[in-house]
């Protein structure tokens, strides 16, 4: 009996040793990776002073980490189940819905859009040439300069209203010829899903994508305002002013199909694992591997590197997309050759001091056994420099205003053309301020109204505005002084 027990004990020990040697290294490696990512995010967050974010990293179906950091403006601690607005990461879900219906034979990607929405773009002769695939690849010919959705006096509230609003749109290039990132392309795709499935778009996503992927805390809304009302009650995000986060109400914006989804780090981990199956077996009830491959492949001919809800870099074997609102941001990436997926969700809008992609890059460095970069420009120093800059501008402006008499003495002794040249140069800051919307469109192709521009670049607008107003005052005071002295000379 003793011998039998001894034999069993030894066998059990051998089995344990084998299991530890086979299983533990991978588990420990993943734990070590998770710890490295956690340490990196904490250091990066402390340096950047971002109020809060959540991150998830997967390796195919394996979850490496899903965790939250920081807090919401209400003080609630962020965890892996805290909801964030995904912004343009929503486009991938819309593309998935379209490809699901294509698998069922209800949508043909190369059919014209008007086959599914007959009344779309009635005033555009080339509308018959715009296909569903063109919308997916952002090569429809539509763009912000032909239809400036952000400058609408009244935002639509439904997909039907959004389609009707587009009656005023003009093409800015021939269909299929040029890439123009344009949110309404994906609003039209959402309407096609409704028209073909005979279901509301939010309901379709819930039943055919969110539920099968077990994304229990993910939902879709039509308008930004719906995020912050019951039943969702999403916390406010943050904008940045003088380098400091400031809780702010997101401007009204119709977002169904292009930016209307809110989700969590835990749910997005499931989404990334699903997307990584493009090179594996069929994914079953959500989307087949072949359709995923189509979704992740840019169009032929080099007209665009935009696949369907993904920016594709085929040489680097990665797929990437960002999302940016005025108070929320998001970043996601798939390293398709290595099977890694990363998502970072942030409760802050555009940040002049922190490149949000750097979070993805740092995590990639860790996955590649490299040391990530955690340094960033000190936010406190930025705040001090901005305040000093504003004070210097104000001091010099007031100083010039008080020295108008000295200016007049110099004016009398210099050539008139020099005076008027200096005066014209003082108009520069105000002229530059007025040109900001046009420069933004020239650089990015996006068309924004002033309230949105001020939320994106409040510090830049404040500096230019103060410079412009002070210089206009200086010019006005000098001209008034000159006018009065000339009148005195005439009266004498």
Write the layout of secondary structure elements.
Elements: H1 2-48, E1 52-59, E2 62-70, E3 84-85, H2 91-103, H3 132-136, H4 159-165, H5 183-197, H6 201-210, E4 219-220, H7 224-227, E5 237-241, E6 244-248, E7 261-263, H8 265-275, H9 289-295, E8 311-313, E9 318-324, E10 329-335, E11 340-346, H10 357-367, H11 379-402, H12 404-413, H13 416-426, H14 428-444, H15 450-456, H16 458-491
Antiparallel strand pairs: 1-2, 1-11, 3-7, 4-7, 5-6, 8-9, 9-10, 10-11
Helix pairs in contact: 1-10, 2-5, 2-6, 4-5, 11-16, 12-16, 14-16, 15-16
What is the average of the pLDDT values?
89
Shape verdict: globular
Give me the oligomer status.
Answer: single chain
Percent range for β-strand residues: 5-15%
Count the domains.
2
Provide the succession of SSEs. Answer: HEEEHHHHHEHEEEHHEEEEHHHHHHH
What's the CATH class of the largest domain, please?
A: Alpha Beta
Q: Trace the largest sheet across and list its strands.
A: 2-1-11-10-9-8
Under CATH, the topology of the largest domain can be stated as Beta-lactamase
Helix percent band? 40-55%
Domain Beta-lactamase-related: 37-349
Signal peptide: 1-29
Transmembrane segments: 380-398, 419-440, 460-483
Protein name: Class A beta-lactamase-related serine hydrolase
């Amino acid at each position: 009996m003793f011998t039998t027990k001894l034999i069993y004990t030894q066998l059990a020990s051998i089995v344990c040793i084998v299991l530890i040697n086979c299983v533990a290294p991978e588990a420990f490696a993943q734990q070590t990776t998770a710890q490295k990512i956690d340490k990196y995010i904490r250091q990066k967050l402390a340096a950047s002073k971002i109020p809060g974010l959540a991150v998830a990293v997967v390796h195919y179906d394996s979850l490496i980490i899903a965790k939250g950091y920081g807090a919401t403006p209400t003080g609630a601690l962020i965890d892996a189940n805290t909801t964030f607005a995904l912004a343009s990461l929503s486009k991938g879900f819309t593309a998935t819905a379209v490809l699901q219906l294509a698998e069922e034979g209800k949508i043909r990607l190369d059919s014209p859009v008007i086959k599914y929405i007959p009344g779309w773009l009635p005033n555009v002769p080339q509308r018959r040439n715009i296909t569903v695939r063109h919308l997916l690849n952002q090569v429809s010919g539509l763009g912000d300069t032909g239809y400036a959705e952000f400058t609408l006096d009244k935002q639509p509230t439904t997909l039907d209203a959004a389609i009707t609003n587009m009656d005023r749109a003009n093409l800015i290039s021939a269909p299929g010829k040029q890439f123009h990132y344009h949110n309404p392309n994906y609003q039209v795709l959402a309407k096609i899903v409704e028209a073909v499935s005979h279901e509301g778009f939010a309901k379709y996503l819930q039943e055919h994508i969110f539920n099968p992927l077990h994304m229990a805390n993910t939902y879709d809304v039509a308008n930004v305002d719906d995020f912050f009302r019951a039943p969702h009650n999403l916390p406010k995000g943050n904008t940045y002013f003088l380098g400091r986060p400031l809780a702010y109400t997101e401007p009204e914006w119709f977002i169904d199909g292009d930016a209307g989804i809110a989700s969590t780090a835990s749910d997005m981990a499931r989404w990334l694992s699903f997307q990584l199956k493009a090179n594996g077996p069929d994914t079953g009830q959500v989307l087949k591997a072949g359709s995923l491959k189509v979704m992740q492949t840019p169009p032929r001919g080099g007209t665009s590197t935009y696949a369907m809800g993904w920016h594709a870099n085929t040489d680097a074997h990665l797929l990437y997309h960002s999302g940016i609102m005025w108070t929320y941001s998001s970043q996601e990436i798939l390293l398709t050759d290595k099977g890694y997926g990363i998502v970072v969700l942030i409760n802050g809008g555009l940040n002049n001091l922190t490149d949000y992609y750097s979070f993805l890059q740092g995590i990639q460095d860790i996955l590649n056994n490299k040391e990530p970069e955690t340094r960033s420009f000190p936010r406190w120093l930025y705040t001090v420099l901005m305040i000093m800059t504003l004070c210097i501008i104000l001091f010099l402006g007031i100083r010039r205003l008080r020295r108008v008499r000295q200016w007049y003495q110099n004016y009398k002794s210099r050539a008139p053309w020099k005076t008027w040249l200096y005066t014209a140069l003082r108009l520069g800051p105000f002229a530059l301020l007025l040109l900001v919307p046009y420069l933004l469109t020239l650089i990015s192709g996006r068309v924004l109204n002033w309230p949105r521009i001020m939320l994106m670049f409040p510090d830049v607008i404040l500096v230019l505005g103060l410079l412009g107003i002070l210089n206009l005052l200086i010019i006005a005071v000098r001209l008034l002084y000159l006018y009065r002295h000339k009148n005195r000379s005439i009266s004498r």
